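Subject: Sanity check before I submit

Could someone independently write out the structure tokens for this chain? I want to compare against mine line by line before I put it in a report. The sequence has 328 residues.
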Amino acid sequence: MGNCFSCFKIPPPSAPPPDASLEKDKEEGGLPASAAPTELGPPLTVGEPTANGTGRGPAAPSPAAAAGATVAAAAAPTAAAAPAVANANAAVAASAEAPATPRPRVFYPRLVRDPPPSEAKICALFEAYRDSAEDAMLADGIERLCADLGLSPDEFKVLVLAWRLDAARMCRFSREEFVGGLRALRVDSIRSLQSRLPELAAETARDPDLFKDLYRFTFRFGLDADAGQRALPADMAACLWRLVFSVREPPILGRWLRFLEGHPHVRGIPRDTWNMFLNFAEAVGDDLSSYDDTEAWPSLFDDFVEFENDKANQNIAKDREGAFKETD
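---
Independent answer below. Compare away.
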């Protein structure tokens, strides 16, 4: 059928046969049959009244007209959407012809993990400092290790290293402690260990929980396990307090150590006193004014605070006495 609408055309209806009575009247009136009027007037619209006042009713549209109206109605939305489609096509063409705006380049940091340490290198490093008579690093080997690391044996970084190796006692690193500790630290050479230690020391000094763990390890590290010690000698405790607090010294540490040195009857520091001194130093501050003797502090702390207060009162009395003498 294609695009031709001729299939929808219906031939016009044939003319009705002439009415015999009407022809007879025309002949009697003297009018020939061929003289009948040829124009019937304009067609009536739907519901239009006739000339004599009578309506012929709604005129049904012809099939051809109805088909044409259906096709026109179907084509109307397409014709209405044609400008919008044309505008969209023009916008797409314009965007295709316009030069593309370069996108900014974003660089993401690449997460680089250190390669796993070499077990053979760690063992070779241990062998370089191992004692000839024992399968462990002793004082001489540890001193040589510290010298190669550029450290002194009494530095805070060396204490951190012993803590990370989980050393059982001072001046001795067993094979298991050294190899397992370096494996956990992911280092296998002097250079890598030298680079890692400053990071560990800074992190430990900054994190209160890590520092507390190191602080409590220091007490166990200082005990002489072979002698069965359960308390640190006062002089050893003083050395270890200076070492562990070398990066974050509390305000009262100096006075506390001078108190211990001036009271030789204090021969040992038990574990509870050692552990609670960290809390005590944080609680009392610098002037000891916030100390509460009703709390469950070790008796040695009570003696220290009383000693400091008596000394402060004596200084006040001396100052007043000097002031009176000046006025006289």
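---
OP: Matches mine. For the report I'm noting this point. The first strand starts at residue 136 and ends at 137.
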